[in-house]
Write a structure and sequence with these properties.
55% helix, mainly alpha
Length: 297
Amino acid sequence: MSLQSFISYLLLEKNYSQHTASAYKNDIQSFADFCLDEYDLKHLNAIEYPIIRNWIVSLVNADISNRSVNRKVASLKAYYKFLQKIGSIDTNPLAKHKALKTSKKVEVPFSEEEMQQILSQLPFEDSFEGRRDKLIIELLYATGIRRTELINLRIIDVDLSGQTIKVLGKRNKERVIPLLAPTLDLFLSYFSYRNSLENIRDKEFVFLAKSGNKIYETLVYRIINGYFSKVSSKVKRSPHILRHTFATHLLNKGADLNSVKELLGHSSLASTQIYTHNSIAELKKIHSSAHPRGKKL
């Protein structure tokens, strides 16, 4: 069974994007090249785990990060799972493989001062794009929604009278999030400009590009990175950092972890707890400054 059959399966049956399918193909092809170069093996169907393990060792020795190695191995594992499904192999040689350990990335949220600068001091153009950009930043910070949830937010999901939005999260799980008064004001201002656009193609969606099409991922990233580069020296300035900032600021102010979990749309507390390291740092600072033993003489 050829690699192309697997790629067709990803595209047609799994509905993966061309970009994702290409990434799988490149990962598997790199393993095929290794097998040919090192063992003169032209077919992957009869490969045993020790050969795969040697490939993994070669990747690590090439200074490829454990996270990237795990991604490549996951692609290969999916390929063997496909071969097993169609009966080309009996067992998946990666069935018992354990992923390499990876260090958790520490993502630094924006400070309250940086958010204040962006939303209260930085001038936004009095135009469709200016109003849209400010609402996007405000909404991501005020609700903690994901970038994809923002992109797919529909007009019917926004209840201005009820002061809520409804978002469709991972695994098609819906949640309702309350809106703050400043966010409501920005929605009203944005909608007045949006309604004046000509040739709106994706009418059901809230956020549009100037062309009238639904906004897309890289544009959202450029908006966030562009504005925050004016007030922040942080290396990472992305929509996800705003989600991280939302959670961290709530926890710093004493919000209940379970409440933050529900607002973020997490299925378990473990996912939410990754945001607590910043609130713990804040608690340490408060503890040190407030406790008599913490004050400097």
